[in-house]
Amino acid sequence: MKTVFVLNGPNLNLLGTREPAVYGAQTLADVDLLCQQACARHGFALQFRQSNHEGQLVDWIHEAGRQHAAGELAGVVLNAGAYTHTSVALLDAIKGTGVPLIELHISNVHARESFRHHSYISPVARAVMCGFGVAGYGLAIDALAQW
Ligand SMILES: O=C1C[C@@](O)(C(=O)O)C[C@@H](O)[C@@H]1O
């Protein structure tokens, strides 16, 4: 059974109360459940995690990379939050491990402030999705099942 890593970056622990007009009313626990259901549809195991710390996200990408090397990884779905727009370290981790990765954003970042339009992740992501709300997580896992 292959594993999907769903990694969530800073402030995503506040989903449900954080800017609900932008991110919706569902909590991170709701997103975890949605991902469990999507993984169950495809026979994937799930590692669903959140951290406010950039280095922790780097360590988790390395962990996913070791699973990838062992042929045990279906892919990574990464919502790096604000680190998307700042983190060379995440870019290097994704590039260095070669993990197949979908960059995900709940909101349509391109319809928001210009500083959200640039992503350090996009050039090393296999695919990018934004603006589907939390439903995007399920859609991303469905896409991994076709890779
Ligand atoms: O924290 C977030 C969440 C986000 O990644 C999204 O899911 O829409 C978009 C980012 O610009 C923002 O910093």
Short description:
The chain has helices spanning 20-23, 28-42, 54-69, 88-97, 135-144; strands at residues 3-8, 45-50, 73-79, 101-105, 127-130.
**How many individual helices?**
5
| CATH topology group | Rossmann fold
Please, what is the oligomeric state?
single chain
End-to-end gap: 15 Å
Low-confidence stretches: none
Shape: globular
CATH superfamily: Dehydroquinase, class II
Spatial strand sequence of the major β-sheet = 2-1-3-4-5
EC number: 4.2.1.10
Catalytic activity: 3-dehydroquinate = 3-dehydroshikimate + H2O
Keywords: Amino-acid biosynthesis, Aromatic amino acid biosynthesis, Lyase
Family: Belongs to the type-II 3-dehydroquinase family.
Relevant terms:
5-stranded parallel sheet, 147 residues, Rossmann fold, alpha/beta, binds 1,3,4-trihydroxy-5-OXO-cyclohexanecarboxylic acid
Explained architecture:
By secondary structure, the chain is an alpha/beta fold. The protein has a single domain, classed as Dehydroquinase, class II (Rossmann fold), CATH 3.40.50. 37% of the residues lie in helices and 19% in strands. Strands 2-1-3-4-5 form a five-stranded parallel beta sheet, with helices on both faces. It is globular and about 40 Å long. The chain starts with a strand and ends with a helix. 34% of the residues are buried. The mean pLDDT is 98. The structure holds 1,3,4-trihydroxy-5-OXO-cyclohexanecarboxylic acid. 1,3,4-trihydroxy-5-OXO-cyclohexanecarboxylic acid is lined by residues 11, 79, 81-82, 84, 105-107, 109, 116.
